[in-house]
Amino acid sequence: MIVLDDVWHSYDDRPVLRGVSAELSERRIGIIGANGSGKSTLARTFNGLVVPDRGTVETLGLDVRRKRAEVRAQVGFMFADASAQIVMPTPAEDVALSLRPRGRRRRGGPDGAVAARVAEVLAEFGLADHADAPAQLLSSGQKQMLAFASVLVTEPKILVCDEPTTLLDLRNVLLVRSRLAALEQQVILLTHHLDMLDDFDRVLVMDDGAVVFDGPPAEAVPFYRELAAR
Ligand code: ADP
User: Fold this and answer.
1) Nearest Cα residue to atom 21 of ligand 1
2) What's the CA gap between 151 and 195, in Å, rounded?
3) Single pTM value for the model
4) Nearest Cα to Cα of residue 191 among 39, 32, 26
5) Which residue, judged by its Cα, is nearest atom 25 of ligand 1?
6) Which residue from 48, 57, 103, 130 has the least number of CB within 10 angstroms?
7) How many CA atoms, within 13 angstroms, populate the side-chain half-sphere of residue 225?
8) Percent of the chain topping pLDDT 90
9) Separation of 51 CA from ligand 1 center, angstroms?
10) Per residue in 161-186, pLDDT tens?
């Protein structure tokens, strides 16, 4: 659950969010809109990656401005460019890093329990055979699966996906779609792949920093198509 109350934000005096208010409680929420309409900036306020100039964001009952670390631990993020999210040389090390308590770097390999969990998660995301291979040599679909694995292993209560399929081919788009559909937690998906939202509960359409439509996908997507064609 995320509650936005009159959220404003500017970059260099240029308003990017103009008084966004919404209660986001549904399990599957899409956010769509033209490039530059403010979707990513809005999503980044959900866990304090962006602190708005004005207004409040309450995530899971916590004021993000004051409880940023607590919120961050419970809100996972996935981005279009999975490469930028992979910080360790191999998939196994990358997932293991997510399992470590914040700020602690252990010497040597992960211990037994961590190694077992890492193996389990990599297998779940089809990466068992690549556990110790160079992560940067994975295909873009495999990199997105690794980013998924590394985020989900932390068991976030909310997963925010900022265009997770933009760089993927159709097969991998479908794979990400089915992965998202299987998740129990709340998912907020920013995307230009509009058909991914068919079975979503709610879709927000953004235009020039404001939410200009908010409703079921069967109404929101046609609204956005019309807006884009204007
Ligand atoms: P969207 O996700 O809908 O494409 P963004 O929130 O990424 O929109 O961007 C909204 C506007 O803010 C764009 O014009 C973008 O160039 C600008 N912007 C985004 N991030 C920054 C930043 N860190 N510094 C300056 N301008 C930014």
Assistant:
1) 11
2) 24
3) 0.92
4) 32
5) 11
6) 103
7) 9
8) 80
9) 14
10) 999 998 888 888 898 899 899 999 99
